[in-house]
Amino acid sequence: MGSPLQQRVVLENFAKLKQGFTAIHLGAIVATLWVLMLNGIVGFQLLDDGTPLSLGLILGSAAALFIGTGYIALDTAFSYSGHFDSSRGGDNRNVGLYVLYQLAPLVFLAAFFVLETVLVLKVLGEKKPMLYLAGAALLFALGQIFQYVISTHICSGTNGKINGAFFETLFTLLAVVMTWVFWSSITEDDWPMPVSGGNYT
To answer: What predicted TM-score, i.e. pTM, was given to this entire model?
Structure first.
């Protein structure tokens, strides 16, 4: 496969590429959960949904969060400004990145569930859609338990061959599906597949 020097260069470039993709991934997580929370606000019709103003506000603010989070992650990885150099040694702690990647999405998600609960129970006066929303919350929580608690045990038991990421991804996907089922159950539009026993026309 080449000389050891060539292999080292390939590995260094792969590490840089991985850090770049990680920055994109973190930015996408923050922006996606921000958009989810804003969709929870849209249900209250503060602005007409689908108008250029509402779409521009959602997409513009999501782009700002994506770019900001991505920049902080890239600056942490590649030390562009030197501002985050203190987080590269010792405990490897970057408070800004922690807040943007861990805390902010959790707040956005909690706000979405609270907003949707108020919308369904108080505004729409429905109860059945809450089963779908509770199912989505439970599935997401199971995914996080696999990611942060069970994953280390799976990794240790398989000598590092697998971890809980597969199960975390599976449960998160199922939570997204349940969120779609919830959303389709509270909207009046005709969807290709009926969620309840209603007839499809």
So the answer is: 0.81
